[in-house]
Amino acid sequence: MAAHVGALPGLDFLPLDFAGAAAVEQVVSAGLEWSFGHAVYAASADPAEGQVLTAVPDAYDGTGVWVVDIGKP
Length: 73
Description:
Elements: H1 2-6, H2 18-29, H3 34-45, E1 52-54, E2 67-69
Parallel strand pairs: 1-2
Helix pairs in contact: 2-3
């Protein structure tokens, strides 16, 4: 699966560097699970194009990121 996703031409992968780790810490401190933190950081890195595709859009309330709900048919 990782090889397939990694080969998709429209995806950019953002490393979780120090700034990202600090952003994840802030998200966790605000009450979100750590798994949402990197998505928030990645989407915030480029607000003009950043978006999060998720089946749980309510989890991102108050984060300021653009969320696309993929959980509904």
